[in-house]
Design goal:
Layout: H1 2-76
Length: 81
Amino acid sequence: MLSNQKNKKLYIKIKQVKKMQNKTKKIYNQKKHINELKKKILLHQIEIKKIHETICDLSKQLNYMKLYINQLLASQRPPHY
């Protein structure tokens, strides 16, 4: 009778340990997945920053072109009397 109770207690403890191991494994996998997502987000943020810088540079170039075109057009006008 005593050995049967000990076996039950041991069985219950083993089950609890397995549950904890499974929970720990799930938590580890979730953390791993979260870290992968963080890395992807960081890469996208870097890419977005580069795109923003490129847009700013293109905008400056466009403004210079507009200024140059306006200067060309102004030099082609006949003088005002």
